[in-house]
Amino acid sequence: KHPFKVNDEGHLMVGGIDTLELAEKYGTPLFVYDVERIRKNARAFVDTFKKRNIRAQVAYASKAFSSIAMAQVAKQENLSLDVVSQGELYTAIKAGFPVERIHMHGNNKSREELKMAVKYQIGCIVIDNFYEIELLNEIVNEMNTTMNVLIRVTPGIEAHTHDYILTGNEDSKFGFDLTNGQATQALKKLKETPSLHLKGIHCHIGSQIFETDGFIMAIEKLFTALNTWKEEEDFECEVLNLGGGFGIRYTEEDQPLPLENYVDALIDEVEKQTKKYHIPFPEIWIEPGRSIVGDAGITLYTIGSMKEIPGVRKYISVDGGMTDNLRPALYDAKYDAVLAANVNGNKEEEVSIAGKCCESGDMLIWDIHLPKIRPDDVLAVFSTGAYGYSMANHYNRFPKAAVVFVENGVDKLVVKRESFEDMLDNDLSYN
Ligand code: LLP
């Protein structure tokens, strides 16, 4: 079910360390990452391209979890890095991440963000709209340099986890529409802009996708456009960036494919299309976020109060909630959990796990079966490694949780728990 070991006493282990010890040592709520698992996920992507001898970049989407330590692990695993803000770029640079492997996204990149990207000469900027072409061109000329760019296109396919919606004109805030001529216009504009070197195109069809057909449909659409652009615009696509979105397991209901299968399917389809149109095989880039860190992370909470409504429900409250995991409140996302001290115990209670925010919607898990629970027990929620810490917030003024990396029996604090002083650092008096 979950990729973690259980020791002889029935305790949940991560990277060779007892999670109860981690909860004791660092306090809760606590994000714990199994670094070996992060590496394994990353290698599933990287090695599959390598095995098939395909030039590729696997760019970790740092929005899933951005921190100095994570950028360092990404560097160690030869990943590239997708950033969507100056903050994520700043983190990558502070971590010593190779700038030539950083790609920048965003539908409203500010002048300042673009300037920083140009100053550091990052690998490429993914152009999202016409305004950005003008703005970036101006900046690049002011700074007397050039920049590699991709254009982001919307192929008219949107993945909704199990099915795909085909839209004629794509109604999205991101990118240039492939079907209404705007993408072609952007291509023409960039051809007339010599300081911006157009390397290729980008598309991202969605997130938490379990099948490969959506990617295949998108690739078909992209190559129809590439074929037209080859003939009419003399454009050769060096880089084809297919985005992220590979699904992971949160609960038993989720049946993701092995990560290798996604890569194989992408390569197979690109092979098919390049042959069909006699187009040279481009370098393939992907941008997995969730599938690299999601199942490598768990959150440890301490259980506090309990409320039983006879015949209705038993609420079990933990010391975190929507401040460290917004996903259940925001997307109705489902999670699985165990008692860290009794993973395989008899699941005799049906309970619902509540966060401690002042909001009825702050529920982490509805109707889960667990062994008998007592206050001060540690609850471990699985698959919280992506979009947990990165979407953490200060609602009700809860300080942000700490993050620990564990590998080969060694635990290391990589993001300190926020103190009240940290949180009030920017508050000024009005007296
Ligand atoms: N590339 C682009 C252009 C993206 O927009 C995204 C995600 C990714 C890559 C990475 O997708 P992944 O491999 O992680 O699925 N906060 C939401 C997810 C938002 C994803 C936004 N874009 C959640 O918690 O489910």
Automatic annotation (TrEMBL):
GO molecular function: diaminopimelate decarboxylase activity; pyridoxal phosphate binding
Alphabetical UniProt keywords: Amino-acid biosynthesis, Decarboxylase, Lyase, Lysine biosynthesis, Pyridoxal phosphate
Domain Orn/DAP/Arg decarboxylase 2 C-terminal: from-to ranges: 31-385
Active site: 358
CDD domains assigned to the protein according to its UniProt record, in alphabetical order: PLPDE_III_DapDC (cd06828)
Pathway: Amino-acid biosynthesis; L-lysine biosynthesis via DAP pathway; L-lysine from DL-2,6-diaminopimelate: step 1/1
Gene Ontology biological process: lysine biosynthetic process via diaminopimelate
EC number, as in UniProt: 4.1.1.20
Residues modified to N6-(pyridoxal phosphate)lysine: 63
Family listed: Belongs to the Orn/Lys/Arg decarboxylase class-II family. LysA subfamily.
Record-given protein name: Diaminopimelate decarboxylase
Organism: Gracilibacillus halotolerans
Taxonomic classification: Bacteria, Bacillati, Bacillota, Bacilli, Bacillales
